[in-house]
Amino acid sequence: MTKNILVTGGAGAIGSSMVNRLSEDSGNRITVLDNLSSGHVENIVMRPNVRFIQGSVESAEDLRQAISESTDVVFHLAANFANQNSVDFPQRDLQVNGMGTLKILLRSVENKVKKFVYTSSSCVYGDRNEPLDEKCQEYSLDTPYAITKLLGERYVRFFNHHHGLNTVTLRYFNVFGPNEYPGKYRNVIANFLAKAMRNEDIIITGTGEETRDFNFVKDSVRATILAAETETASGKVINIASGRETKIKDLVQMILRITDSKSRVVHHERRNWDSVTRRVASVDLAKKILGYQPEIELETGLREYYEWLRKQNLNKCEW
Ligand SMILES: NC(=O)c1ccc[n+]([C@@H]2O[C@H](COP(=O)([O-])OP(=O)(O)OC[C@H]3O[C@@H](n4cnc5c(N)ncnc54)[C@H](O)[C@@H]3O)[C@@H](O)[C@H]2O)c1
Questions:
Q1: Closest C-alpha among 97, 101, 73, 70 to residue 83
Q2: Which residue has the higher pLDDT, 317 or 142?
Q3: Fewer beta carbons within 10 Å, N or C terminal of the chain?
């Protein structure tokens, strides 16, 4: 049976990998809604079952085009990404991540969408530094982005409880891999790899002892699709991560080795909004509910990402 799927932010780093994976199944009809503010339409494989709408989740007219009564699943990935961007542009962050999320939830309820998948972030855990499971209450939210991703979670919960919308919220930890270009507001792996490829200084903001949980994009995408298909995930909040804790200094050494780079490692002060010294997820709930198992080792993922980056024209990226 044909399944009608909307992916918002489907030209983005993760969204385009979602779209490309979903469109491999000719039984899926995929609509992408993306305003291309940070996405790249060329990352989408334009198969016959893919329809692209250049538009915004903030626009009633664009949402009317994107969602109808035949829409089965909404994957809501569109967002103003991420922390530093939100510190620089807090109003834009609230408009997209707050109001945009509210508007798409309303439209989804009106059209009786069968499943709504919201992509949240580990940043809602604030400055907690121990291994994190979903029972942890958030502590201090350090950036507008952390605030609005949690706001989105709360709206999703309201629409689930009050309107009976079938929702699932996924808290992604750091995702990396093909289709993410380096840039001023992009993730650490994209930017470290690009610096290493140019033999430019790699700047660690902190001591390098800080840790993060890096998950390869294909694992994140697989988990996200599983979440949409799993009925028992309904109403739940689930970490999507690798469950692996990696020190930033070890990540850098791995990148230097893989790229055979002559970059120097330089330390700067930790950014004033960044108080997270330790970050690792518990993925027990994802394993239990979704049967999800992270499969791709950090080094394997880094090598695949490096091969992809080598084929891109990085001169077009804004640093
Ligand atoms: N990448 C990560 O490590 C990570 C971690 C935690 C959570 N997330 C979440 O996952 C989702 C995808 O992240 P990503 O890394 O692919 O980011 P991204 O910036 O590459 O993708 C976001 C996409 O949304 C689009 N967009 C922005 N504003 C829009 C609007 N008003 N209307 C329609 N489209 C709009 C952008 O053009 C872009 O294509 C986001 O919701 C993000 O908060 C990502």
A1: 97
A2: 142
A3: N
* Residue 197: pLDDT over 90: yes
Q: Which CATH number fits domain 177-213+244-279+296-316: 3.40.109.10, 3.90.25.10, 3.10.129.10, 3.40.50.300?
A: 3.90.25.10
Any ligand 1 atom below 6 A from CB of 96: yes
Q: What is the mean pLDDT of residues 1-18?
A: 97
Ligand 1 pocket, residue 241 CB under 6 Å: no
Ligand 1 geometric centre to CA of 262 (Å): 32
Cβ of 63 closer than 6 Å to ligand 1, yes or no, is no
Measured from the CB, is residue 58 less than 6 Å from ligand 1? yes
According to DSSP, the residues that pair with 319 across neighbouring strands are none
Please tell me the distance between residue 264's alpha carbon and the centre of ligand 1 in angstroms.
31
Which of 20, 36, 81 is the pocket-test mutation for ligand 1 (most atoms within 8 Å of CB)? 81
Q: Residue 128: its pLDDT value, please?
A: 84
Judge whether residue 9 has pLDDT over 90.
yes
Boundaries of CATH 3.90.25.10 in the chain? Answer: 177-213+244-279+296-316
Give ranges for CATH 3.40.50.720 in the chain: 3-174+215-240
Is the pLDDT score of 139 beyond 80?
no
**Does the pTM exceed 0.90?**
yes
Task: Convert the pLDDT of each residue in 108-138 to its tens digit.
Answer: 999 999 999 999 999 999 888 778 898 887 7
| Number of the ligand 1 atom closest to the C-alpha atom of 175 | 3
Ligand 1 atom with minimal separation from the 174 CA:
3
CATH topology of domain 3-174+215-240: Rossmann fold (3.40.50)
